[in-house]
Amino acid sequence: MPNENTPLLYQYPEHLRHTLETLPARSGVYIFYGQDQTFPLYIGKSVNIRSRVLAHFRAVDEAKLLRMTCNIEYVETVGEIGALLLESKMIKDRRPLFNKRLRVTRKLCSLRVDDQTTGIVFSNELDFSTSEDLFGLFKTKFAAIEKLRDIADEQKLCYGALGLEKLSAKRACFRFSLGRCAGLCCGKETRVEHQTRLKMALEAMKVRSWPYPGRIAIEEKSGQQTEYHVLNNWFYLGTVSTLEAAKGVQTATPHFDRDSYKILCQHVFRHQGLNITLLD
Ligand SMILES: [Zn+2]
User: Which regions span the lipid bilayer (predicted)?
Assistant: First the structure.
């Protein structure tokens, strides 16, 4: 994102040329440091660290980051899953200055919908990894309400029944008179019919419960190298090089982690052929 401090003229970061030569053309996580080696400026991941960093060098809108960068370090991983999990953990732990999506662990919001009720729940009050009837993972309550409102408009649901507006007793809501509510508020449809339409509209956003009895180790291989990523309740615990060591990786304070959840749903469960071992 260019701002008044960013010259629009592209300049190759000559002072980083030496660093580039040390970077491997392999998967892993890379870290840009400024003068203070303890405080990262940027953390990224790639299946090819060297070419990804080269792409940063050519990006005009990253001139400021590159000017401030003095050194680039990296951690190799066996493959893409390890790189994704490690990047997500490092960004949370180290909070780099330039990462736009600063994925700090925080409470998430979800819609809890059953045949009778609709509510908004928070991950610090409810264990999302074992709860049924949860739909959507939202960063704010506002975002959850917006989604609910969109679906209500689309499906002619009653704002009153959803808690989006106050309903006066025994009277149809205002949207019913406009033809925008199918009439749960005045007995034109049943609560189950109403909730069923809502659940169907939310189906693609259903939050999956953790499908294992406890911890798992996901095996990732490349050539002669193998890594085991240990997770529990969608929470990433760490990566080790043997199954024996994986058994010793214990659960930290578990809390629902949106990044690991997404990484597993998008990159692990969708693909066949990955070896998953139950550890508990
Ligand atoms: Zn209504």
Answer: none
For 61-75, how does the pLDDT look when each residue is reduced to its tens digit (9 = 90+)? 888 899 999 999 999
Distance from the CA of 209 to the center of ligand 1, in angstroms? Answer: 32
State the average pLDDT for the chain: 90
pTM of the model: 0.83
Please report the domains of the chain, with CATH numbers, ordered by start residue. Answer: 17-94 (3.40.1440.10), 109-205 (no CATH), 216-278 (no CATH)
- For residue 156, the CA-to-ligand 1 centroid distance in Å is 8
- Ligand 1 mean position, distance from CA 106 (Å): 34
201-223 mean pLDDT: 94
Q: Give me ligand 1 centre to Cα 155, in Å.
A: 12
Contact 115, 195 (CB under 8 A): yes
Q: Are 178 and 158 in contact (CB under 8 A)?
A: no
